[in-house]
Each structure stands twice: as C-alpha cells, then as structure tokens.
Amino acid sequence: xxxxxxxxxxxxxxxxxxxxxxxxxxxxxxxxxxxxxxxxxx
Length: 42
Prior knowledge:
48% of the residues lie in helices and 0% in strands. It is mostly helical.
C-alpha cells in the first residue's frame, strides 16, 4: 500500500488478520481491565 512506504510502516495496521499480539497497544485502561477480569475469575 502507498501509505506503508510513505509513513515508513513495516506492516499494514488495518489488516486484522496480519496483526501480531506483540504489536498491539496496551493502554492503561486495557491493563486495568485485564487485572480486574483475572481477579474476578479467581
């Protein structure tokens, strides 16, 4: 895609099939939700 080379991207961020878990953004809210869900299940 044109925007990949223009912005210097190494992968297409809009392709959900190609996105690796390590490339996901973990926000503060996301981390808090995970902690709450884990403690809820225990």
